[in-house]
Structures
1.
Amino acid sequence: MVPEELKNSMVHWDVDETDEKQRKYLDDLFKMQFQQWKFDVQRDAERGGVPNAPKED
């Protein structure tokens, strides 16, 4: 279940799932954002700013 305030803040994408170029673009965009987020979390964990952060293997 998604909290109501999160639902209201979410961006609603109008994606044509049959358009391969559009799907690839969005996949690449989300991967890039995830990699940046992961880097930020790991950097903060190294600095001691994130409790219980996952460790790299």
2.
Amino acid sequence: MLILLTLPCVECVFYLTICSSQQAALSPLPEAPALLLAASLHLTRGGQGGLQGKKGQAFRETLETLVQTKDKHCTQVLVFLLFLCVTDTLATVLYPEESGRLGSREMCTDLLTVLVDSQDWHLIFKIQPADQGPYQAVTMATLDEYTRLRSFAFYSVLLEQSPELLKRAVLCPGFLHTAALCYAYLFKLFLDGHTPNLLAEPHINQMEPSQILDQARQFLLRTISQTRPTALSSSQYSQLESLCAELDPEVAAALSTHLGPAGLSQEMDFLL
């Protein structure tokens, strides 16, 4: 899956030991690149049996502690950790025999719960590396097969979340643009026959690709209707309108009705 970062750093192993003893708030993250820290925490976490029991609860509390610091580096570590767990979740779809990765779905929920109000987490699902901000390394560290299915992974994970969490996600700045782009590319995957085949007994909550596409469409239409007109810049609107007009006229019409040129944010173009 990943082509780098195969061993946890010693500092992260020590930090995770502190997490397990419920003393994480007393110790800052080690000084290291965010992706390395995330990969180390991810690998070490897997070696301790995932998120079961008291250690799992302590790890969840650690996630909340890291978010509450409001430190940009901590946020980046958590976003990279989310990326690694999403990739694991995708691996369970592509290779269902790898049952050891099933805990990644619960981990994605835990991470989204603490990250959902941040503007950063959905950047890992942007299609173009230039749009991924400080998370461009996710493309360099991922095999092409996983990069191609990023839009599928976005909705596969998102649609499993609670209604309360989804409501918070919709309010996150920049979310609509990511959700609409992922829907458009998911639609293209479906038309081209490139959605993954379920090779074995599916996960208990796992949907077929056609179900994911249908529910993604309904979710996007609801999101469009609930989003403020200023949520998209004029360039973002033009991009989405062009993509959706060819793929799904109903989505394009919803964009025009709720977020058409009259309500667009011209100022946002200068911030992108």
